[in-house]
Design brief:
single chain; mainly alpha; Arc Repressor Mutant, subunit A; two-stranded antiparallel ribbon; 4 helices; 2 strands; about 55% helix; disordered C terminus
Length: about 70
């Protein structure tokens, strides 16, 4: 199923990116997912949380670290 319409990324693409090390929406952008309209960001955060074993803070923690280092 397509999750990120702007970039044509499917749930499989997103899971592969997360399993490959993407830990937040910011790092998913490196894989060509998210970053345009933002309509998929809530779903991306949910998928990251699921892959992180239910850690709902996984994305927020990573995104804060990325924002601070920028």
């Amino acid at each position: 199923m397509i999750v990120c319409v702007c970039r044509g990324a499917s749930d499989r693409d997103i899971r592969a990116a997360i399993e490959g090390g993407a830990k937040c929406v910011d790092t998913l952008e490196v894989h060509g997912i998210g970053g345009d309209c933002g309509g998929c960001h809530d779903t991306l955060r949910e998928m990251i949380s699921e892959c992180a074993g239910g850690d709902s803070d996984a994305c927020r923690t990573c995104c804060r670290a990325v924002a601070k280092s920028a």
